[in-house]
Amino acid sequence: MSFTDPVSATDKNLDSACAAVATEIARTDGKASLLLAFNGAVLAGLASVADNNLPLTTKAFGAAAVLALGAAAVLLLLVVRPRLSGHDKASFPYWARLDEDEIRASMQSDTRAARIRVLSVLAIRKYQRLRHAVHLSLAALALLHLAAATALI
């Protein structure tokens, strides 16, 4: 018969949850970086054809696509923007304001649960912005499709 120490199981679960949330944050930053590069490439391509003599409808759809890509880029920049407020007591921005003795005193208690909460809120915000940016990028691609279709008419 095996016996599992509940404190050890809690410690293991807290450590695992901290690592999982940190991994999710890293994933959002990586995805945002890829989407920023994609949107930048599309915007650069649009800039190269902006001065062409195109039908008004094509220009209107193209302008709407540029606005959507710009809004997506803003959201993606907010995803990768560092959060340095440090109001919680479980993050490095908070610890940066402490002296060595205050850091030692703050380490007397287990802050993993607080860290999990703070990082989870941060991860959710990042994923929400990432999701909205993807929707805007898809809308921009649909608008570019319409712009291309009207250019052929």
TrEMBL record:
- The coiled-coil segments of this chain are none
User: Which keywords, in A-to-Z order, does the entry hold?
Assistant: Antiviral defense, Cell membrane, Membrane, Nucleotide-binding, Transmembrane, Transmembrane helix
Q: Which GO terms describe its molecular function?
A: nucleotide binding
- What is the superkingdom listed in this entry's lineage? Bacteria
Q: What residues does the Pycsar effector protein domain cover?
A: 15-152
Its Gene Ontology biological processes? defense response to virus
Kindly state one GO CC term assigned in the UniProt record: plasma membrane
Residues crossing the lipid bilayer are 32-49, 61-80, 133-152
Q: Where in the cell is it found?
A: Cell membrane
- InterPro entries noted in UniProt: PycTM_dom
Q: What is this protein called?
A: Integral membrane plasmid transfer protein
Q: Specify the species.
A: Streptomyces montanus
